[in-house]
Write the structure tokens for this entry.
Amino acid sequence: MAFSKSAVAIIVFALAILRLPDSAASDASHFGGFDAIYSFGDSMADTGNLIREGLGPIGAFDRFPYGETYFGRPTGRCSNGRLMIDFIAERFDLPFLNAYLDRNASFANGVNFAVAGATALDASYLESVGIVLPFTKSSLNVQLDWFETHLASLCSTHEQCIAKLDTALFFLGEIGGNDYNYAIFKGKTISEATSLMPLIIKNLKDAAKKVIKHGARHLIVPGNFPTGCATCYLTAFRSTNSSDYDGRRCLKRYNEFAQLHNNQLQLMLQGLREQFPSVNIQYADYYNVSLQVLDNAQTLGVDMESRFQACCGGGGEYNFDPNAMCGENGTSTCSDPSKHLSWDGMHMTEMAYREMVASLFAGNLKG
């Protein structure tokens, strides 16, 4: 199946699923009493930055059926309704995080710096190794620059900033997945994509140290999800060799690649914990909770035989066509998104995100 340039650009936006690891369940009580949330990342958390960058057509995220379930209108969120960051804000009785580029918005309870399609590595480096970004260049470092600009409006001294951020929760990601996705969907091998890993992990480490230096004391750093189970990957890299798939019908080599990233990320985070023992640093295990949701799809009201199928799409085995993306002519939307896990082949439905947040704080799925 041929993938157009614009389709490749949209496909790389990461679907994401979040849960604290079981070993950190006892630390869930530490996550309470916050008066602000600061979010960095990509499409799993973007609440409207990409559509405000003014970079021209960027897909369907700014039109129906995106946002139809909860908001009744498109907001720039890459789902039919709320994202995980929205449910997390609700859990702490905070308003939804406004996008940083929404200049008329209130930032009294935090800011969302995430941009759909963003990368962990700077655009200049990726382009130097032959990975040209199709639109946004708002990488993690750009988002950190936005944060520092915003912080200057909140406090004038380091001590004031530390006091201000002591009761804030920071989400550093998910980000980095698009670096790999851009490479792989542009024809790079997994080995070539793996060569980006040390730099991505280093950038995440540097970003964590930067926000900690400014006063962050509660930090969640998510891992990568099982890309071998993603609808867009299953479509693009469909194989007739049964040995390429695992028992869930996910592509094994892409899941192994995601696990390699996650293992390296966790080693890095352990080093940060030793360096900053007074900072609560948690790893969010996107990978295993994603598999848990797939395994429990039937409990959630999803047909196990169609759990990889997108609710909104252009047809085919997984209802995903890179030449007819959700919201474009020739596509259709399912009648009940709550019966689906995948919204558009790259991102999850509001229902799936809600269940992931429940799992984050309760340690299990809530039907």
Summary: The first helix runs from residue 5 to 11. Residues 142 and 203 are 12 Å apart (CA to CA). The chain is about 35% helix and 5% strand.
